[in-house]
Amino acid sequence: MKFPGHRKIKHYFPVSAPKPELPRFEVDPALDTYVVGLDQVIVDVVAKVSDEFLQRYGIGKGLSNLVEHQQADAIYQELLHCQAISDHFAGGTIGNTIHNYSVLADDKSVLLGVMSANITLGSPAYHYLCHTSSKVDLNHLHGVAGDIGRGITLITPDGERTFVIDPGDMDQLTQTSIPADLVTNASALVLSAYPLRATGQPIIAAMQHSLELANQQQVPVVMSLGTRHLVEELRTTIQQTAEHHIQILAMNEQEAEALTGLSEPLLAAEKILDWVDMVLITAGAEGLYLCGYTDASVQRETTHPIKSGALADFNRYEFSRPMLRRDCQQPVKVYSHIDPYMGGPERIANTNGAGDGALAAVLHDMAANHHHRQLQPLSSKHELPYLCYSSFAQICKYANRVSYEILVQYASRLSRGLPEREDSLEEAYWER
């Protein structure tokens, strides 16, 4: 596994383990460090159309339109015939996150979901596979007779974006398709709130089963919230799921407000920490917040400037490493914030997927900690059961950098890893 950040050579593991003669592409739960993601598999399609096109199909301009599969297929086939499609992107918030994790870690991950059993050249399923890292183990996808989901973005001459959503068979993931050993041996299980709205569909039972497996073996569970509208619709269900099954929640500032009723990200994070152990909030031009718990006996004071906002001196102990609240004898809430990398890009090419990139960085650091603990259990890095390898501040810096890479490109997924980052004051601090 490639460790996050630029570190001294002794921090890279394993350095002397024998290399296998042939690479293994499928995850071995007994040997590999990996994360598991469960997603509604969907492809994003981008096309330019006329206003007449929207009117002919009865599509509301500027809105998100959930349509029947036959109508969506007719729209898609006409776009193909007219050569109006400019791009196909593999989508899905968890699919994006898992792909980005494997790019950053240069290591394996597992995606659980559905996939068309019969894939033809140029089909949405074909494009999904083409745009997913080879490090992502797709061998456990559940084959379905129909299509995976399609999210079609229709751009009219005035630049307005209209969305056509075709679920296809993306919610047909069954409970029997969840491999228990893969979930129980993972560094983390990551999923989104989107499947919670698939009332009456098999994916609900599959999601619940995966949560129970992870909770039984104390595998950290990470949930990404979908959109503000989704959170408003399912607020009570999300809160209850978080309290009983989730350790880490990831969201943007609008979703945080919808969940808590608080518009200030710090106050929203403070409230969310009553339900979970760590929260990641991406706040656009305001930057990024990572908040959680550590034990009072190991809290470490920052050397960065002290910040005050809705909470006074909130980042004082951001050099502390995250822990689960249940593992702390004296749990202390810790808050860290970072402004956008380089003040943000001069030109934002795409905002879709920036939060998924930030979450992938957090997962990478968690997996690195799990990997290091397995290889060096007596290391001073593991005197306490820390959740992450790095501190709140360092993870913030890493997540912020990954988000920047997404913002400056048109795709919602990383195509390459990050360049080496400079040593930080905090790394020197930890070397003492």
From TrEMBL:
**Which keywords are on file for this protein?**
Kinase, Transferase
What is the annotated signal peptide range for this record? none
Domain Carbohydrate kinase PfkB intervals: 134-299
One of the Pfam families matching this protein, by short name: PfkB
Q: Which GO terms describe its molecular function?
A: kinase activity
The record, for InterPro entries, names: Carb_kinase_PfkB-like (IPR052700), PfkB_dom (IPR011611), Ribokinase-like (IPR029056)
- Top-level taxon: Bacteria
Q: Which Gene3D superfamilies match?
A: 3.40.1190.20
Record-annotated membrane-spanning stretches = none
Q: Identify its protein family.
A: Belongs to the carbohydrate kinase PfkB family.
Q: Which NCBIfam families does the entry link to?
A: PRK15074.1
Any idea what this protein is called? Inosine/guanosine kinase
Tell me which species this is from. Alkalimonas collagenimarina
